[in-house]
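Retro notes
What went well: the complex prediction finally ran end to end.
Inputs used:
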Amino acid sequence: MKRFGEHVDSPLTRSFYLRPAPRVARELLGKILALDGASGRIVETEAYLGEDDGAAHSARGITPRTRVIFGPPGHAYVYFIYGMYDCLNIVCEPEGIAGCVLIRALEPLTGIDRMRERRAAAKHDHDLANGPGKLTRALGIKITHNGVDVTTGPITIHAPDRAKKFEIATSTRIGITKSADLPLRFFIKDNPCVSRR
DNA sequence: AGTTCGATCGCCT
DNA sequence: GGCGATCGAACTG
């Protein structure tokens, strides 16, 4: 751990997120998402654009709910859906411009026992966080985390100590009806923790 | 004030 | 592969 001092374990900085969502979504693959000792490797993401994207919550402008998507980059946009699930997005683009990345799946790394407690329904470890609602439950992320700064914590994203090599696959996004043809889903090829192929 | 529908999950077949 | 659960956000009138 920390072979190069604080450098390796420091969270990604704001400039990482100050770019178009598709670019950030692609580059978040292989990074580590952590909260309170539980962590996982990001294996699946989706980009949501600010304009020309009917599927994005921000498509109809600023509302109390979508406010943080228009805020500064590097913050968490957490929303509650279907009466039961919380989903985690990371805000991209400069302040005033909408854009975010939905984190869809993790490969569990640390704090796995705690994840099993929170996700008793999971039969295997690769089911603990293989979906957007599952990963938030596994890590204990809730709507109360909406707006928090992921460059400082308590939710953090950082580069792995040793980056594994992987191949990136692309597809259309899952479960949407508007702008459904855009190739804005990114995932690590052949990884068992990806929500679906 | 009422209605519609959704960036999902887990169980059932 | 299909479907019910379950409720908040946003739109309509």
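What we learned: Strands of chain A lie at 32-35, 38-49, 76-81, 85-91, 99-110, 156-158, 168-171, 185-188.
What to try next: split runs per interface for comparison.
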